[in-house]
Amino acid sequence: MSGLVLKLRPSERIMINGAVIENGDRRTRLNVLTPNANVLRLRDAIHPDEATTPVRRICYIAQLLLAGEAEPQKARQQLMQGIEQLGQVFKDPESSSHLREAQANLQRENDYQALKFLRFLLPIEAQLMEAAQ
């Protein structure tokens, strides 16, 4: 079976094509079969005020794309440029791999997976920021 598989915790919220959906009191597994559906886990969402670092800003753009709140072509172009810029800083093999995967998924318009790979950089960025202080 293809498509996006979401495993939801009790009371977890997701947004699908602009509609916020809350899970009941049990764990649930959903298969989103519609290609290009706009799906965003709200537990993973970054508030606009929290988009204060380069990786968080890129993730926020990806989030807007997933929520259907950004024009897809323009958002993907911004994401590709952002990934190229991040590649100038994140040169370690693990980060480079995540950036390549995010870029490849964006090219295939697999936006959810692109965000997933970008989110791997958040703790790495936090460590770099902490070390710089």
- What class would the helix/strand composition place it in? alpha+beta
Side by side, the strands of the main sheet go: 3-2-5
| Oligomer classification | single chain
Shape: globular
Q: What is the tally of beta strands? A: 5
Please explain how this structure is put together:
Helix content is 50%, strand content 16%. With 133 residues, it is an alpha+beta fold. The chain has two domains: 4-42; 46-132. A three-stranded antiparallel β-sheet has the order 3-2-5. Strands 1-4 form a two-stranded antiparallel ribbon. The longest helix has 16 residues, at 72-87. It is globular.
Q: Quick gist of this model?
A:
The chain is built from 5 helices and 5 strands, in the order βββββααααα. The protein has 133 residues and is α+β, with helices and mostly antiparallel strands.
Write the layout of secondary structure elements.
Elements: E1 4-8, E2 13-16, E3 19-22, E4 28-32, E5 39-41, H1 54-67, H2 72-87, H3 93-107, H4 111-119, H5 121-132
Antiparallel strand pairs: 1-4, 2-3, 2-5
Helix pairs in contact: 1-2, 1-4, 2-3, 3-4
Characteristics:
5 strands, 133 residues, alpha+beta, three-stranded antiparallel beta sheet, single chain, 50% helix, 16% strand
